[in-house]
């Protein structure tokens, strides 16, 4: 390339760098939308999947939970691999795998095939999610701009959470349950060429060899720990639960020791020595633990207890995500005014209040109660997540953005997976004993009904008559009781998060930063390749 051409390209790049950062943000938000929709679109389809595929209790948990389990296990692996080979490259590969796995899930004819497809979706999600945050951290070095970008990013996540149940409900009204997975394919077909054209390639420091052994140890350790928690949630307390828990915990301990010894670690664990970073990670885990489990249980309550259609269920959950969108868009201003400590602490307290308020839900519909409870719940949780994510990314050095993003997304998915297992186990523990002996109902039928509310309705339909109606009413009452117990447990966890948030900084420190990362326009990239 000649000197004149080089100077012209540099001038164009300097003039358009600011605008291009926001274009990159739009592409990253589209990536997040792809993952967020898939994380929630299945919630309203659980009853239809249960009716069609007849999964057992553990299989049903796997269908819902294997996606966050696999995704959480592989985030560190793909996050650090992206630092080596290019984050955009990993992102685009994730798009392709997401599309293939979505088609596989849509056409699944057994619970086992659906579980395998959801696992592949988790692999694709693990490729996509760390790249979005690490590229965002690099492209927006100024904390004020980055706070606004994270607010938009988190609002898009709320949009995905809103669109998922609504889209799933609409599709279930007109098509079979597998159609909820087909929505990923058009998003992938658009994201692949747009991402290839507009996203800049981004790599981290390449000092020393990539620790393949460490990456596999982290993946296997996280998988074992969450698998053990999952089996606990299904009521299994035998060797099948203890073995993966112990093996997973041992592998994570060995992973930590290995990273501390290495000159060039896969993940710089010294970041956890910073109170703001470690506290933010803990807050993300607790917030997601409460959110995902409650959303799943709420969807079952609305459909199976109140008898709402899937589309009506999605509309009832819509206020939660609209409130979350509002909190994300207002997050940057709130953070500047109140600081991370007060913002995250207040978000946890508001969410706990909303959860306690929702314990007034019973066997009859109360739209006003649910509207107020879901609005407070969505606003409080998004306020918490925004403050925690922003503090975590700002605390991490720019050269460690990939590792920090992987840790943040691992905590997000880990909290989601543990939340479903933990709150699901609390729900089962409160639901099942009430059906151990129902007057006028055979013992075998009562035992079968204790597995889940959907199975209780199926058994009641087979019994028919007075016995069937008695079993159906008893199951509904037990489910409502279990919902109340689960909500109270969630409120306690949220208050624990509020106490934890007191370790965050009081104010938002906006120190001087380096010049923004320059994002070349697609034409300039092509020019440089041609003239190189």
TrEMBL record:
Transmembrane segments: 22-48, 60-78, 90-108, 114-136, 148-168, 174-198, 210-229, 235-256, 277-302, 314-332, 344-362, 368-389, 410-431, 479-502
Source organism, top-level taxon: Bacteria
The protein's name in its UniProt record: Multidrug efflux protein
Topology in the lipid bilayer: Multi-pass membrane protein
PANTHER family: MAJOR FACILITATOR SUPERFAMILY MULTIDRUG TRANSPORTER MFSC, METHYL VIOLOGEN RESISTANCE PROTEIN SMVA
Gene3D superfamilies to which the protein is assigned, alphabetical: MFS general substrate transporter like domains, Multidrug resistance protein D
Organism phylogeny: Bacteria, Bacillati, Actinomycetota, Actinomycetes, Kitasatosporales
Keyword Methyltransferase set for record: no
One Pfam short name: MFS_1
Listed GO CC annotations: plasma membrane
Main location: membrane
Organism expressing this protein natively: Streptomyces davaonensis (strain DSM 101723 / JCM 4913 / KCC S-0913 / 768)
Key words of the record: Antibiotic resistance, Cell membrane, Membrane, Transmembrane, Transmembrane helix, Transport
């Amino acid at each position: 390339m000649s000197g004149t051409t080089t100077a012209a390209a540099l001038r164009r790049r300097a003039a358009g760098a600011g605008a291009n950062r926001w274009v990159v943000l739009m592409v990253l938000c589209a990536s997040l939308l792809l993952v967020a929709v898939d994380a929630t679109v299945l919630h309203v389809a659980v009853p239809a999947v249960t009716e069609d595929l007849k999964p057992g209790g553990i299989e049903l948990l796997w269908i819902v939970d294997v996606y966050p389990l696999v995704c959480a296990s592989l985030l560190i692996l793909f996050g650090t691999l992206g630092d080596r080979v290019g984050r955009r490259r990993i992102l685009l590969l994730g798009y392709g795998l997401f599309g293939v796995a979505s088609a596989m899930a849509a056409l699944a004819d057994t619970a086992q095939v659906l579980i395998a497809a959801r696992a592949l979706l988790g692999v694709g999600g693990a490729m996509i999610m760390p790249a979005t945050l690490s590229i965002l951290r690099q492209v927006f070095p100024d904390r004020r701009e980055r706070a606004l970008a994270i607010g938009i990013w988190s609002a898009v996540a709320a949009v995905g959470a809103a669109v998922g149940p609504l889209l799933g409900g609409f599709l279930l009204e007109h098509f079979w349950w597998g159609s909820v997975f087909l929505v990923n394919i058009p998003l992938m077909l658009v994201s692949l060429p747009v991402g290839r054209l507009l996203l800049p390639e981004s790599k981290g420091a390449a000092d020393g060899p990539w620790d393949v052994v460490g990456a596999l140890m982290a993946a296997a350790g996280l998988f074992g720990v969450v698998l053990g928690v999952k089996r606990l949630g299904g009521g299994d307390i035998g060797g099948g639960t203890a073995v993966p828990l112990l093996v997973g915990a041992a592998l994570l301990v060995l992973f930590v020791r290995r990273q501390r010894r290495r000159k060039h670690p896969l993940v710089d664990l010294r970041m956890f020595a910073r109170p703001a970073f470690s506290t933010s990670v803990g807050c993300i885990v607790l917030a997601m633990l409460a959110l995902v489990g409650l959303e799943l249980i709420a969807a079952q309550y609305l459909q199976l207890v109140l008898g709402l259609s899937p589309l009506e269920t999605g509309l009832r959950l819509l206020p939660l995500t609209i409130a979350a969108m509002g909190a994300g868009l207002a997050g940057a201003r709130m953070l500047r005014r109140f600081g991370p400590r007060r913002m995250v602490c207040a978000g946890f307290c508001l969410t706990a209040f909303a959860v306690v308020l929702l314990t007034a839900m019973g066997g009859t519909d109360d739209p006003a109660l649910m509207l107020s409870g879901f609005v407070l719940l969505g606003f409080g949780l998004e306020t918490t997540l925004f403050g925690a994510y922003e503090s975590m990314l700002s605390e991490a050095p720019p050269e460690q953005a990939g590792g920090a993003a992987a840790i943040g997304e691992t905590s997000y998915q880990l909290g989601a997976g543990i939340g479903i297992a933990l709150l699901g186990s609390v729900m089962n523990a409160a639901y099942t004993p009430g059906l151990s002996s129902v007057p006028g109902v055979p013992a075998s039928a009562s035992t079968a009904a204790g597995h889940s509310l959907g199975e209780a309705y199926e058994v009641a339909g087979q019994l028919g008559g007075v016995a069937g109606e008695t079993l159906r009413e008893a199951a509904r009452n037990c489910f409502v009781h279990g919902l109340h117990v689960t909500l109270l447990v969630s409120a306690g966890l949220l208050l624990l998060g509020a106490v934890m948030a007191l370790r965050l900084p009081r104010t938002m420190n906006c120190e001087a930063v380096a010049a923004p990362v320059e994002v070349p326009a697609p034409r300039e990239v092509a020019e440089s390749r041609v003239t190189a």
